[in-house]
From TrEMBL:
GO terms for cellular component: mitochondrial ribonuclease P complex. InterPro entries: MRPP3_PIN_dom (IPR033495), PRORP_C (IPR031595). It comes from Balaenoptera physalus (Fin whale). One of its GO terms (molecular function) is metal ion binding. Residues 1-153 form the PRORP domain. This is PRORP domain-containing protein. Its main location: mitochondrion. Gene3D superfamilies: 3.40.50.11980. It is found in: Mitochondrion. The lineage of its organism: Eukaryota, Metazoa, Chordata, Craniata, Vertebrata. Belongs to the PPR family. P subfamily.
Length: 158
């Protein structure tokens, strides 16, 4: 957490850390001195330990505007499943793809690499007699917010 917040703060980005109050207590995962450094570099909100923090994350991201990005390991499947219909679920998925950053590589003491957010929609696209179809290689596993990076381009012979 400290490495991510520090890197984003060095880029002069506004950072909000959402978590639970247990993160403020010294333990093997959350070192008190690290959490104090995080609080100096970012705004923060710590919910009660028994509360769900995902709704706070979604609200804060939506309220902050379309430019806002969020980082979490949560795939948000529970939230998508609660949506009333397939159209709304697809809309949430597209919003998630455009706003959720994923950490691609992280090595202690070096720069953290984030997955790029694509500026185009990864659905089948057509123009005239051409089709562009996104796909994954066999056995490639990816998170729900990650998108295929390969495209099959088809053109109708005339």
């Amino acid at each position: 957490l400290l490495d991510v917040v520090s890197q984003l703060a060095k880029q002069n980005l506004q950072v909000l850390v959402l978590g639970r109050k247990h993160m403020l207590k010294q333990n093997s995962r959350w070192r008190k001195d690290d959490m104090e450094k995080v609080q100096k570099q970012a705004s923060f909100f710590f919910a009660d330990n028994i509360s769900e923090d995902d709704p706070f994350l979604l609200y804060a991201t939506l309220h902050s505007g379309n430019h806002c990005k969020f980082i979490t390991k949560d795939l948000m499947r529970d939230h998508k499943a609660c949506l009333p219909d397939a159209k709304t679920q697809r809309l949430f998925f597209k919003w998630q793809q455009g706003h959720q950053l994923a950490i691609v590589s992280r090595h202690p003491g070096s720069k953290i690499t984030f997955q790029h957010i694509l500026i185009y929609d990864t659905v089948v696209q057509t123009t005239g007699d051409s089709w562009h179809i996104p796909y994954d290689d066999d056995l490639v596993e990816r998170y729900s917010y990650e998108v295929p990076t390969k495209w099959l381009c088809l053109h109708r012979k005339t």
